[in-house]
Amino acid sequence: MKLRILVLVTLVLGFGLHAGDLAVPEAEMIQVAATAADGTVAKDGYALLDSLLVLFENLVAPEKKNEASEKNVPLSGLALVDSRLSQLAKDAQLALKAGVIDKIFYNRYERMLTIFKLVTMPTIRNEMLKNLFMKAFEEFIWDTTYETWKWEDKDSIAKMAAAMEEEFVQMQFYLDTRQAREEFKKKIGRRILPPPPAAKKKPEAQKPE
Fold first, then answer.
1. Fewer Cβ atoms within 10 Å of its own Cβ: the N or the C terminal residue of the chain?
2. What is the pLDDT of residues 185-194, one digit of tens each?
3. Number of domains in the chain
4. CA 26, 29, 32: angle at the middle one, nearest 5?
């Protein structure tokens, strides 16, 4: 319980203000769309990022109670977040298949979903999964901000928040700079890539004597 609560606090500190500013209705999220083979509309990268930010708001939403039974309403609070995480994973797969996003963005987005999934999982009973969680968080923070991270450190929450924010920023700018990156690749490609192998000359046909 302590782990999940502290990570939730981390996310609140890192994204609470940003999520409120960027939240938009689901119907308005699809800025650019493509149609898959079965006719399903695929969200583009911007819509996927916006969906994740909107989803974040559910992490801090209070659990609703059923007045009749005083039990949690199905698909409320964290249960709803978990359901939508699964849907976002499907949306990302569809976008990749439709060619709306590339493999680089897809894998980084999928990793973000995994981190959110670990954060919102039920209480870790007896901390049986503690090592798995800690390793995933350590690797994510190192790969994102190159900061060493230990849960026991005083600044662990700040580092987690900074890593989550940095990854969102990087993924956003990755989308924004797509055209510029492609043009730059063409500019430097010949200087970086090895020259193509020289074509072998075909042996000349012997002239009849």
1. C
2. 888 877 777 7
3. 1
4. 145
